[in-house]
Design goal:
This is MAE-28990/MAE-18760-like HEPN domain-containing protein. InterPro entries: HEPN_MAE_28990. It holds the Pfam family HEPN_MAE_28990. The protein contains ten helices and no strands. The protein is mostly helical and 228 residues long. The two termini are 23 Å apart.
Length: 228
């Protein structure tokens, strides 16, 4: 995939998401003046906003990982964050000290299991450094904690993309939408959000999605994943 093809895929994905959000806002808020926007309408839009925010971010990062993998670069030629991303499952095994299956965990003691995981880690490390690095997008861009400031910064760091490419205001708005969505899901946000706050954060989040297209395209064009 070249840079032009990557940009086209990102822009196509972004376009339908923004169109859907625009359509929803027009249906729920279009005929009302801003001061009369209903709490339920704004909550519904925030939930949809978060879904598209996470979905677009996940897809953009996945495309970037696909580009890196397609270059078939040796691990030593890549920045160390990408090697760490490829070793994600092995790091999890070391941290949790889990065996391959429950029967094995019952038969082995904690110390033996830890030693076995250490050896498995080194075997995997040798495999990865001996040839072209293949990164699992699912591991590298895991969002099991929901997309917020910390998860986004982690993803950027693990993909060797400078974290300051995203503005502080955008990080804050992403965190706001994530928290609002979680509060709505848990039934703890029933009060009306101020229309000004709602509008400011949704606009910043949509701008972030547009900026992410530029960030991913630029990172690919500059090949910032390569070691210096």
């Amino acid at each position: 995939m070249n840079v032009a093809e990557l940009r086209a895929q990102l822009e196509e994905d972004l376009a339908w998401r923004l169109d859907e959000l625009r359509h929803l806002r027009n249906r729920l808020l279009g005929s009302d003046i801003e001061s009369e926007w209903s709490a339920s309408s704004m909550r519904a839009i925030l939930v949809m906003q978060y879904a598209h925010l996470e979905g677009f971010t996940r897809n953009a990062f996945s495309l970037y990982v696909s580009v890196v993998n397609s270059r078939k670069v040796n691990a030593v030629q890549l920045k160390p964050q990408l090697l760490a991303a490829a070793l994600g499952p092995e790091f999890d095994a070391l941290r949790k000290n889990k065996g391959e299956n429950e029967d094995e965990e019952e038969e082995e003691g904690k110390l033996t299991r830890r030693a076995r995981n250490h050896v498995s880690f080194l075997q995997r490390l040798n495999e990865l450094t001996a040839g072209h690095l293949e990164i699992s997008a699912e591991t590298a861009i895991s969002m099991e904690m929901n997309l917020g400031r910390d998860v986004l910064r982690r993803c950027l760091y693990m993909l060797a993309i400078p974290m300051d490419e995203v503005s502080r205001a955008q990080y804050s708005s992403i965190e706001f939408v994530k928290n609002a969505r979680n509060d709505i899901a848990h039934g703890s946000r029933k009060d009306r959000i101020s229309s000004g706050m709602f509008k400011a954060h949704t606009v910043k989040c949509e701008q972030f999605m547009k900026d992410l297209t530029r960030i991913i395209t630029s990172a690919t064009s500059r090949q910032i994943f390569l070691a210096e």
